[in-house]
Amino acid sequence: MVLNCGDVSMKQLTLYLRSGCHLCEAMEAELQPFITSCNLDVQRIFIDNNNELEQLYGHRIPVLMYKQQLVCEYFFDPDVLQKVMSRASGK
Question: Does residue 83 contact residue 9 with C-beta atoms inside 8 Å?
Fold first, then answer.
């Protein structure tokens, strides 16, 4: 899939995940091709042993966020990522 990423400025995404989570590993792998092509920086935050993050994301991981906006949870959706990135670029 070719993603129209809008402008080329670096965009910071946050991926909340848990160690040993197969859905988390799958989302990371599916997101990988878009990191370079869309100039994304993905901060990985493990929720293991963090009570606050466990309360927020415990049953929803993996959770991909752009700023405070939910992009995906459970499964990666490139169409949703494109919509979020287009809005972020003002298009």
Answer: no
> What letter does residue 41 receive in the DSSP assignment?
E
Strands 69-73 and 63-66: antiparallel
Phi, psi of 3 (to 5 degrees): -105, 125
d(CA 58, CA 79): 25
pLDDT digits (tens, 9 = 90+) for 42-90: 999 999 999 999 999 989 999 999 999 999 999 999 999 988 888 877 6
Rounded distance between C-alpha atoms, residue 82 and residue 3, angstroms: 6
Q: Where are the domains of the chain?
A: 11-88
Name the pTM for this structure: 0.87
11-88 classified as CATH 3.40.50.620: no
Round to whole Å and give the CA distance between 16 and 10. 19
36 band by pLDDT with thresholds 50, 70 and 90: confident
